[in-house]
């Protein structure tokens, strides 16, 4: 989620819920329980999970193939002492 300024090692706080509005960043389960962090958009064929890194392609899944776990409400990063 590079363009969202979410980096490896960051803590992501979620509002635990099973639905999300278009454009919200979610943690979702796909493909036999694989978790992913992406922006969610509804499309006629189902859902598009959009990464915030242009190096990765969006994921397209049919209706019912994505389980939203929660919506991101905050990101925390540990800051190293000087």
Number of domains: 1
Measure the end-to-end span. Answer: 26 Å
Rg is 13 Å
The name CATH uses for the topology is Umud Fragment, subunit A
CATH architecture: Ribbon
Strand content: over 45%
What is the number of helices? 0
CATH superfamily: Umud Fragment, subunit A
Tell me the series of helices and strands, N- to C-terminal. Answer: EEEEEE
Low-confidence stretches: none
Structural class: mainly beta
- Top CATH class: Mainly Beta
Major sheet: arrangement of strands: 1-6-2-3-4-5
Major beta sheet summary: 6 strands, antiparallel
What does this structure look like?
By secondary structure, the chain is an all-beta fold. It has one domain (about 1-75): Ribbon (Umud Fragment, subunit A), CATH 2.10.109. It is built from no helices and six strands. It has strands at about 10-15, 25-30, 35-45, 45-50, 60, 65-75. It has a six-stranded antiparallel beta sheet, with no helix packed on it. Strand 3 and strand 4 form a beta hairpin. The relative contact order is 0.33. This is Peptidase S24/S26A/S26B/S26C domain-containing protein. It comes from Thiohalocapsa halophila.
Give keywords.
single chain; 82 residues; mainly beta; Umud Fragment, subunit A; six-stranded antiparallel sheet; 50% strand
Layout of secondary structure:
Blueprint: E1 11-16, E2 25-30, E3 34-43, E4 46-50, E5 59-62, E6 67-76
Antiparallel strand pairs: 1-6, 2-3, 2-6, 3-4, 4-5
Pfam families: Peptidase_S24 (PF00717)
Domain Peptidase S24/S26A/S26B/S26C: 1-73
Protein name: Peptidase S24/S26A/S26B/S26C domain-containing protein
């Amino acid at each position: 989620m590079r363009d969202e300024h979410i980096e490896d090692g960051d803590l992501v706080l979620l509002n635990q819920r099973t639905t999300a509005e278009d454009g919200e960043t979610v943690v979702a389960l796909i493909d036999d329980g694989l978790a992913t962090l992406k922006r969610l958009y509804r499309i006629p064929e189902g859902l598009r999970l959009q990464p915030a890194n242009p190096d990765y392609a969006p994921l397209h899944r049919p209706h019912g193939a994505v389980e939203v776990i929660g919506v991101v409400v905050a990101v925390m990063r540990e800051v190293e002492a000087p």
